[in-house]
Design a protein that fits this description.
The chain is of the alpha/beta class. It folds into three domains: 3-62; 77-261, Rossmann fold (3-Layer(aba) Sandwich), CATH 3.40.50.150; 281-397. Helices cover 32% and strands 27% of the residues. It has 14 helices and 16 strands. The chain has helices at 3-9, 12-20, 26-38, 43-63, 74-79, 83-95, 110-117, 129-138, 157-160, 189-193, 287-291, 295-302, 338-347, 364-371, and strands spanning 100-104, 121-126, 145-149, 164-167, 202-206, 220-226, 229-236, 246-253, 256-261, 281-285, 305-308, 311-316, 325-335, 350-357, 377-386, 389-397. The protein has a nine-stranded mixed sheet with strand order 3-2-1-4-5-7-6-8-9. β14, α14 (364-371) and β15 form a beta-alpha-beta unit. Bound molecules: S-adenosylmethionine (SAM). Residues 76, 79-81, 105-111, 125-128, 131, 151-153, 168, 170, 186-187 line the site of S-adenosylmethionine (SAM). S-adenosylmethionine binds next to α5, α7 and β2.
């Protein structure tokens, strides 16, 4: 959605058209667009309304029912924090006693909505005009939020009376490609981190791939997974980090949230986990736990050890239920080899395989094609290394 598209939508006719559209359905989108144009509506307006309708439909995974009345740009939606996670951010600010938060680079307003929804005053700054227009509309029902179109780094935080800062630097270049270098993000990570000399209560969202060695010694770094996928790392400073400097993993799911906190300094290497023989159960730690370097703690929780010193699969003799890892019963173990695996699966009438992999270059889709299975049953394979040897584990989910 570009500036022109948004401008059209924000006109009286544009808004009326958007509000009149039925729930988005990809199969009927083309027919609906044609019908609207045939009724004499401006093709540019129809295109803008249909694009927005599609973005709103996609946004329900992040914003639930709120998405139906929000405005998005494509980049803004892709980079927005989902509400379940933004609510956890906002709680940190409320718990720290913050009253007025500057959200520097607020995007379409995902985090700002959660902060203002907690009753905090929010100064939401966004430099992209179309994105700032979206944030203005999305925050319209929250009177404690104010959106400013401008450069976040030019804001005089002290003069604004801000007592806490949140920043989620943009990680896309002008063509929409992802940026991995935190200093190439906008604003650059170093410039954001420098703000804590002025406002110590600082929170910054960074990409989950940030290496531990790049973390400031005074941060509490928390990797977050939502519904099993790692979505971010948050760097928390000052009163926003009551845990103190270190690393943790936060797992947000439909049944609530679970946190695992480590004991090392944020920039220290992970505590090495023990290694040992394959046992009756295999545990796949959540991605946030792995990124936070806390696999040794999963070993402790399930009474197990790694199957290979460099691979984050844990094995243990007994089934232990933990929110921090998915457990499988080990049914069989084969040395990796296409012919042997194909024969094994055909003998057991397997037609469908779920393939998990770690520590191997094998591509699941390629392997699936090579196996060419036709049977009627289904199984789960784990392609990995066990004590250095390429191995296939045949496993069964335990839940
Ligand atoms: C990752 S998005 C923020 C997403 C937001 N937290 C949310 O949940 O919707 C980053 C935003 O920062 C904006 N931005 C980048 N540099 C900026 C700057 N110097 N001043 C203001 N905004 C900036 C980008 O335009 C982008 O919309």
């Amino acid at each position: 959605m570009n500036d022109d598209g948004l401008r059209l939508l924000l006109s009286r006719d544009g808004w009326a058209l958007l509000e009149s559209l039925p729930p988005y359905d990809e199969d009927h989108a083309l027919g609906l667009s044609t019908a609207l144009r045939d009724r004499g509506l401006d093709p540019a307006l129809v295109s803008a309304a249909m694009t927005q309708s599609r973005l709103r439909a996609r946004a329900t995974t992040k914003f639930g029912e709120f998405a139906r009345t929000m405005l998005f740009t494509q980049d803004g939606l892709e980079q927005a924090t989902r509400l379940t996670v933004a609510a956890r951010h906002a709680k940190r600010y409320a718990d720290a006693g913050a009253t007025h938060v500057a959200d520097l680079g607020c995007g379409i307003g995902g985090d700002a909505m959660a902060l203002a929804g907690m009753g905090l005053r929010v100064l939401a700054v966004e430099q992209d005009e179309a994105t700032a227009a979206c944030a203005t509309l999305n925050l319209g029902a929250l009177p404690s939020a104010r959106v400013v179109h401008g450069d976040a780094l030019a804001v005089d935080l002290t003069a604004e009376g801000v007592d806490a800062v949140y920043a989620d630097p943009g990680r896309r270049d002008g063509t929409g490609r992802r940026i991995f270098d935190p200093e190439a993000c906008s604003p650059p990570l170093g410039a954001v981190l420098a703000l804590r000399t002025e406002i110590p209560a600082l929170g910054v969202k960074v990409a989950p791939g940030i290496p531990h060695s790049a973390l400031p010694a005074d941060t509490h770094a928390q990797w977050v997974s939502a519904a099993g996928a790692v979505v971010e790392a948050g760097l928390w400073f000052g009163a926003l980090a009551p845990e103190g400097p270190g690393r943790s993993a936060l797992l947000v799911g439909p049944a609530g949230a679970n946190t695992m906190t480590g004991t090392s300094a944020p920039d220290a290497p992970p505590v090495p986990a023990p290694q040992g023989p394959l046992e009756a159960y295999l545990f796949e730690p959540d991605g946030a736990v792995i990124r936070a370097g806390l696999v040794d703690q999963v070993c402790g929780e399930v009474g197990g050890h790694l199957i290979d010193s460099s691979i984050a699969y844990v094995t243990a003799p007994h089934l232990v239920t933990t929110p921090f890892a998915t457990a499988f019963r080990v049914v069989d173990r084969l040395p990796f080899g296409l012919k042997r695996l194909r024969a094994y699966l055909r003998q057991r009438d397997v037609g469908r395989v779920t393939i998990k992999k770690r520590g191997t270059a094998v591509e699941p889709d390629v392997l699936r094609r090579q196996l060419d299975l036709r049977g009627s049953s289904e199984t789960t394979l784990v392609l990995t290394r066990v004590a250095g040897s390429q191995t296939v584990l045949v496993v069964e989910p335990t839940a």
